[in-house]
């Protein structure tokens, strides 16, 4: 049948839509070629399909996060009901076996598997659970905490105004004289040496703190007792041992007016212990005046608010808490850390609190609003020490990564990283006092020395002293035969005290000082 020439083009398009054109030469398209992987690979007894499936499984296995800590790997295997170790198996083999088991569980359950680094346990996570974990929640507050926040705001504004006025005055001091003063302080600190040692317990001494008048040292140990030592003799005070905790002492703090205007019959000292309690002590009896209960885990560092009315405590229950000392009750239970909270410190103005712990993260909280204003995210290991500089805006943190970091709250970032030690940094303390350099006459109008240097203790057995203007090492104090666990600086700029795993308290001072 003939087709009119005007219809030939349309007819060709219709045929193209029904039957796709064949390639030139009468070949096949790639998608038309059937693929058969069910054959034995050359030189092996393995079928290609089996090999491809194994490659796919290996790729999926690499995407499963498995802890590198062998203890957590063992805990994960135990949780899954698998043998903890096999004959001839090393750490790497055990880790790969855990990965393989997780992959098998994932394939069987058709859902993601998560390794919890906190406990090493393993669990399946569904989509609904993941959404629940990301939800925000709010902790309701009562009228007491609202009133306390108002009082803190009024107190901190007055202190901040005074601090700001002092800083403006200090800025007018001639730079040449300021450099001379800093050089004199460095030369004085370089003369520090070991002046005395006192063995105070049968176990490690975990914390030491000078009293505000620099005449007493409180030393807490893993026996649960607290020793009060006189300075500089390191002899026992009239009340030599404070007993009340049933487990190790985690932290000590003196009331801001203790040994000054505070009566010895009221609260002068606070301690946190492994028995989940915070205890308050006077200087007239060897038993606690009060016990603050509420924590659900070991209590570590404690810190007084500069007003003396409030106390903060850090705990292994992943919270830090704020206590009203007059009412002896808990005002605030603050969450925000994914692991145990080890240390807490309060700014000298009383407005800010820094908390840090075993999650390697620090958080700066505004007590006036209850909000986090800064996250200290930079350490690769746990944080064991934190302290505010008297300037109000610098924070020092010591970590298990052997470094000390200096954070600037104004710029909301880290301002310096000090490779401070060869092992874990256990404590950091700024000089916070009104003392002058002994034996050196200060210039008229010279800025106070508080905040001008920093001390850090470490499990390498050393106590290091650092300049605050350049963060350079001034002096390394060596004397502990084992780990140095805590450090403090007296407010009169005459002494440094440290405690350690060797059960001792050591007193450091200048060789030229008159005792």
From TrEMBL:
<feature type="repeat" description="WD">
    <location>
        <begin position="292"/>
        <end position="333"/>
    </location>
</feature>
<feature type="region of interest" description="Disordered">
    <location>
        <begin position="1"/>
        <end position="26"/>
    </location>
</feature>
<dbReference type="GO" id="GO:0017070">
    <property type="term" value="F:U6 snRNA binding"/>
</dbReference>
<dbReference type="InterPro" id="IPR036285">
    <property type="entry name" value="PRP4-like_sf"/>
</dbReference>
<dbReference type="InterPro" id="IPR014906">
    <property type="entry name" value="PRP4-like"/>
</dbReference>
<feature type="repeat" description="WD">
    <location>
        <begin position="334"/>
        <end position="375"/>
    </location>
</feature>
<dbReference type="GO" id="GO:0000393">
    <property type="term" value="P:spliceosomal conformational changes to generate catalytic conformation"/>
</dbReference>
<feature type="repeat" description="WD">
    <location>
        <begin position="376"/>
        <end position="417"/>
    </location>
</feature>
<dbReference type="InterPro" id="IPR015943">
    <property type="entry name" value="WD40/YVTN_repeat-like_dom_sf"/>
</dbReference>
<dbReference type="InterPro" id="IPR019775">
    <property type="entry name" value="WD40_repeat_CS"/>
</dbReference>
<dbReference type="Pfam" id="PF00400">
    <property type="entry name" value="WD40"/>
</dbReference>
<dbReference type="InterPro" id="IPR020472">
    <property type="entry name" value="WD40_PAC1"/>
</dbReference>
<dbReference type="InterPro" id="IPR036322">
    <property type="entry name" value="WD40_repeat_dom_sf"/>
</dbReference>
<feature type="repeat" description="WD">
    <location>
        <begin position="477"/>
        <end position="508"/>
    </location>
</feature>
<feature type="region of interest" description="Disordered">
    <location>
        <begin position="113"/>
        <end position="135"/>
    </location>
</feature>
<keyword id="KW-0853">WD repeat</keyword>
<feature type="domain" description="Pre-mRNA processing factor 4 (PRP4)-like">
    <location>
        <begin position="68"/>
        <end position="117"/>
    </location>
</feature>
<keyword id="KW-0677">Repeat</keyword>
<dbReference type="GO" id="GO:0034247">
    <property type="term" value="P:snoRNA splicing"/>
</dbReference>
<dbReference type="GO" id="GO:0046540">
    <property type="term" value="C:U4/U6 x U5 tri-snRNP complex"/>
</dbReference>
<dbReference type="InterPro" id="IPR001680">
    <property type="entry name" value="WD40_rpt"/>
</dbReference>
<dbReference type="GO" id="GO:0030621">
    <property type="term" value="F:U4 snRNA binding"/>
</dbReference>
<feature type="repeat" description="WD">
    <location>
        <begin position="242"/>
        <end position="291"/>
    </location>
</feature>
<protein>
    <recommendedName>
        <fullName>Pre-mRNA processing factor 4 (PRP4)-like domain-containing protein</fullName>
    </recommendedName>
</protein>
<dbReference type="Pfam" id="PF08799">
    <property type="entry name" value="PRP4"/>
</dbReference>
